[in-house]
Automatic annotation (TrEMBL):
Pfam families, sorted: Aminotran_3 (PF00202)
UniProt name for this protein: Glutamate-1-semialdehyde 2,1-aminomutase
Matches recorded under PROSITE patterns: AA_TRANSFER_CLASS_3
Database matches in HAMAP family: HemL_aminotrans_3
Organism: Alloalcanivorax balearicus MACL04
Tree of life domain: Bacteria
Catalyzed chemical reaction(s): (S)-4-amino-5-oxopentanoate = 5-aminolevulinate
E.C. number: 5.4.3.8
Name of the top EC class for this enzyme: isomerase
Length: 429
């Protein structure tokens, strides 16, 4: 498979774009080689600048749950564009979007639209602090909530240490109130609350972690978060930027039956356009400006073209059986890959929740901790990634990202992916 156009474009891109990309993971630093430059996409497929076709399991990192270029979304966008791109004033489509999101996610009485997942989590943290009058935040190792300064934090050594900045440019003072705990460690959460409960404004968590590959919550973990937050007057924030509308119509909170105080959304809610949202209980959301004192704003927030794409996407998801079908596709894929790996004698396991999945090169049968993800064979993943890419299968170019299926992936697409994987696994030996 020739990718000379991508190679040329990548050389050109590096002249005026840092690293040649507008978001770091796209640079392929996690797998080596040259990033693929795409020219168009349709359904389950991406087409690169050399006109190679790939079955896509990245889905623009989550939003494209209907598949690429879905006619209903494209037409809604075209109609919105014809009416004007942005007004900086209220529109009916924002009201429709708010009504629909609050109906689909029952823990939300009110919702505020923003322009990215990062903005959603940043505003949710500010709101939680403003509403509770407390400063400390608990987050979990391996969970990513966007590039918000106070959440861009590495765990210190040991479960109860303060976080340290995860990037130069983040002042230590900004992360001083962020406590980092191991994901799926309910006892560590209870211990911190016992010591500092009255200072904790909020716990923010990916209810299914999707940024350390895909790691579902273990039995009782989310219940403990809910119980501890309620007992100590802290807010529970579910960051459903990735899981929202994907693992179930009502997100992970519907799947696991846990009601958070605040929820952040992104990705699918914009249907491929830049949209994020935060929402939750009325009494908390009323602390936001203009009703309350917690400031939050955005020139392009609730943009009518972006709302049209998101609304058309959410409406399509309500089709009866949509999430069962999505879950079945992801299960067919992960079960098929596991069987192919077993046949080839490769140590390999998978996680899967609804339309998201994770692939792990390991002899372990179950992955539920960040440390276990880190212990997987990254070199094998890199070789597998390139063997799949050369066979027209586009996986996330990092061992630490979840994969996604869309409703446009047919059984034939998935079976062809498993066939390619059988060859790729065999080439690893
Ligand atoms: N929260 C989660 C769980 C995410 O997966 C991401 C992005 O991948 C974000 C927040 C940040 O969203 P964005 O990249 O739109 O700023």
């Amino acid at each position: 498979m020739s990718r000379t156009q991508s190679e040329q474009l990548f050389r050109r891109a590096q002249k005026h774009i840092p690293g040649g990309v507008n978001s770091p993971v796209r640079a392929f630093s996690g797998v080596g080689g040259t990033p693929v430059f795409f020219e168009r996409a349709e359904g389950a497929y991406l087409f690169d600048e050399d006109d190679n076709r790939y079955t896509d399991y990245v889905g623009s990192w989550g939003p494209m749950v209907l598949g690429h270029n879905a006619p209903a979304v494209r037409e809604a966008v075209q109609q919105a564009v014809a009416r004007g791109l942005s007004f900086g004033a209220p529109t009916e489509v924002e009201v429709e979007m708010a009504d629909l999101v609050c109906e689909m996610v029952p823990s939300m009485d009110m919702v505020r639209m923003v322009n990215s997942g990062t903005e959603a989590t940043m505003s949710a943290i500010r709101l939680a602090r403003g509403h509770t009058g407390r400063d400390k935040i608990i987050k979990f190792e391996g969970c990513y909530h966007g590039h918000v300064d106070s959440l861009l934090v590495q765990a210190g050594s040991g479960a109860l240490t303060l976080g340290t900045p995860g990037s130069p440019g983040v002042p230590a003072a900004v992360t001083a109130d962020t406590l980092v705990l191991p994901y799926n460690d309910a006892a560590a959460v209870a211990e911190v609350f016992a010591q500092q409960g009255s200072d904790i404004a909020a716990v923010i968590v990916e209810p299914v972690a999707g940024n350390m590959n895909c790691v579902p919550p273990t039995q009782g973990f989310l219940d403990t978060l809910r119980a501890q937050c309620s007992e100590h007057g802290a807010l529970l924030i579910f960051d459903e930027v990735m899981t929202g509308f994907r693992v179930a119509l009502g997100g992970a909170q519907a799947l696991y039956g846990i009601t958070p105080d605040l929820t952040t959304l992104g990705k699918i809610i914009g249907g491929g356009m830049p949209v994020g949202a935060l929402g939750g209980r009325r009494e908390i959301m009323e602390s936001l400006a203009p009703l309350g004192p917690v400031y939050q704003a955005g020139t392009l927030s609730g943009n009518p073209v972006a709302m049209a794409a998101g609304l058309a996407t959410l409406q399509a998801l309500r089709e009866p059986g949509f999430h069962d079908a999505l879950d079945a596709k992801a299960r067919r894929l992960t079960e098929g890959l596991s069987m192919a790996a077993r046949e080839c004698g490769i140590g390999f396991t998978t996680n899967q929740v609804g339309g998201m999945f994770g692939l792990f090169f390991t002899e372990q049968t179950r992955i539920s901790r960040f440390s276990e993800v880190m212990a997987c064979d990254k070199e094998r993943f890199q070789r597998f990634f390139h063997a799949m890419l050369d066979r027209g299968i586009y996986l996330a170019p990092s061992a630490f990202e979840a994969g996604f299926v869309s409703i446009a992936h047919s059984d034939e697409d998935i079976d062809a992916t498993i066939k390619a994987a059988r060859e790729a696994f065999a080439a690893l030996l």
